[in-house]
Amino acid sequence: QWRGRHDTAKGWSGSRVSTWLNGGLFGAPAPYAAYMFGGNAASTNYDGIDKLDFATETKSTLVAVIATASTAAASASNNGTAGYTWGGSVGATRIDETNKLDFATETISAATVLAEDRNYQGGLANSPTNAYLAGGVTASGSQSSVQVWTFSSDTWAADATSLSGANNGMASMSNNGSYGYWAGGSPGGDRIDRTDFSDGTLSTIVATLGTGGYLIGGASNSGTAGYAYGGYHLNWDENNKLTYSGETVSTLALAASFQRYGTAGASNSGTAAYWFCGLTTAHANSNTILTTAYATDTTSLVTTGSNSLGYATALANCESL
After folding, report:
1. How many CB atoms lie within 10 A of CB 296?
2. Is 20 helix (H, G, I), strand (E, B) or coil?
3. 163 CB contacts (<8 Å, ≥6 apart)?
4. Residue 112 gets which letter from DSSP?
5. How far apart are CA 317 and CA 69, in angstroms?
6. Distances in whole angstroms, Cα of residue 121 to Cα of each of 127, 138, 237
């Protein structure tokens, strides 16, 4: 079984009371869990959705699957309501589909597709208002645009200000209600761009990643810090921590057995980040699930899973933001 982490010390916040009244008392509440979508093993793409339940610390596979077995999609979560994936790859072919996972029913439906086939985008959310998708690769090459998704209507809004340059494979981290951060990427190197949720404008912060690279996993302990895990080209041995207050970066060393690129990151905000699968420094697909505890900034093995996959995408429905 996969083992997760659950914060049992938290009190009954207003959001938890609301969930209990609207879900636990009158119907099944949306579970607090991380979900991993798709991925690739050798030449085979995966259409499954794996679930890591935060409360019971168990892993399961949903009945629902994504529309197309694929890899390298972007994802974001409208916390408490639904998670989304956009685009991705089927072999060398990019796709434009959108998959929407209803957290309460754990069923998949389609939503408005991308305007253009695209893969290797960054995705993050300012929940419950918008998702932001940055960069990625289309038929014309790497892109700099920042697209905006409206959760209430499941449609695209006007684009936000573009990244400081064309980029793909970056880590995406959201300080919900304030800013979204895009870290590293190709050819982004070690830079960190920032999208202001209040007006969609872009800036590049002074701090940089410890080492430049791409195919980096991203997760956020909203209100505190974002984490950019591993990545290809030199930086797979580090987990960069972006402290939101002051926007400074510290580098957390990763043990050799935990070094990865192409990981899928998700967060149980306030408790821990989770890193699903990915590829090792020997370029072998991994079936391990790793976790970084926010209280200690240490990374450890949760357990091994049932599928060795790379380039999956992940998101979470967490207890609070």
Report:
1. 9
2. helix
3. 134, 135, 144, 145, 146, 182, 188, 193, 202
4. P
5. 23
6. 19, 10, 23
CA-wise closest residue to 226 among 191, 174, 269, 169: 174
pLDDT at position 200 is: 98
Distance from the first to the final alpha carbon of the chain: 27
Q: What is the pTM of this model?
A: 0.91
**Which ranges of the chain have pLDDT less than 70?**
1-29
Compute the C-alpha angle 224/309/266, nearest 5°. Answer: 15
Taking CA atoms, 228 is separated from 10, 28, 191, in Å, by: 26, 34, 12
Residue 15 DSSP label: H
What are the two backbone dihedrals, phi and then psi, of residue 90, each rounded to the nearest 5 degrees? -120, 95
pLDDT score at 29: 67
**What are the b/e assignments for 245-264, b being 16+ CB within 10 Å?**
eeeebeeeebeeebbbbbbb
